[in-house]
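Figure 2 data, in text form.
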Amino acid sequence: MQRYVLIADRVWDGISARAAEGLAVLIEESKIEALIPNGEIPPDVPRVELPGCTLLPGLIDAHVHYSGVMGAAFLAAGVTTIRDVGNDLAWILDRRAQHAADPTLGPTIVCCGVLHDGPTAYWKAMGRPHADTDVLRASIQHHVAAGVDQIKLYAGLDAGMVRAGVAEAHRLGKFVVAHLGSTRAEEAATCGLNEIEHLDQCGVAWRAASEAEDDDLIALFLKNQVVMDPTFVVWDRLGRILDRSFHHDARRQWVHPVHLDIWQRYLSRFGPPHRRWRFQAALPHLKRFAARAHAQGVVTALGTDTPFPHLVPGFSVHDELAMYVDAGLRPVEALSAATTVNASVLGIGARVGRLAAGFAADLVAMQGNPLQSIDDISNVRCTVHAGRIFTPAELLPTVQRTFDQQPDDAITRDLLNYVNSR
């Protein structure tokens, strides 16, 4: 259908405090034409009736390492845009182009290219080593010339390297994301880093801390306009990697058997238990800090780190949303993080993340009302991506047809090398 109208019980535009009733979404080809009262729907326009549903902007996962076997799963979960934050440069640029040309392949991709690491790359396929600041600057220049959207710095870079990388990326007009390891969050913030992933190296966030200690780091984030992407769900999964309940998760049907095998052989399953306990113990502190920072105005993005253990592509966004609400955010605040906020952080807020005239026709219909009960986020009735309607039942065979193929991408190669090193 080139032009049609979606009619649901409620419509949330991505910016309002609550969903509206009595509105329909008029779509023409790949764009939203208008939000119109139900009584003003043109009589000759085909109707898609979604009783009992809420229409929301398509969800965005801001922290993914994409594999070619994931596309349909993201769409089935209502995720219409992802940011890949570490991959083979040529491969991810090609995938970005393929998805832009054919929305049936999967979500829109915003990409960073490789993980810019220190003198030794921890992940050999996704990462690239940089011996010094000159090499790092040259790599960033190459990435920008190749057409990446943003730049990702990785854990092996010390404060001097982070400062040089941020300065070079900013000189070339690029937003910089980092998974910190050798550099503390306080140092990175003063370097001008735009976004911190996982709350890594945010020391007070990982332990029992006073409000004053929290507020010192929060003030630094606010002063330097640092975005945080907590990715609670990956720490939860690594802490509970032996939890048998994950094996009964029906959503595993969306996961490629090679990735399921990696999860089953992931090295932290076999290490000393205190390594897992660290993540279990830290989560209440991470939630405390993130909720306090969010309440004070720190921009809060939402990502997952798919496909690390027990993170089902697309559906792990639902879990992260529920964890945001458990941390104390209201459902509308959590949903904003996964839509309008993420779109802004990814630099695409002028075309996705909202339901408004002229925006991309990227929507998801949920049975129920996730703005009242975040649990309803898992009740995906259908997803609209670039104006095309997909249902989970139609998408599942698409994903499962890939199960007899060996994934050939950087994340799969790196994870296989990791588990095979035991």
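Caption note: The domain at 1-55+355-390 is CATH 2.30.40.10 (Urease, subunit C; domain 1).
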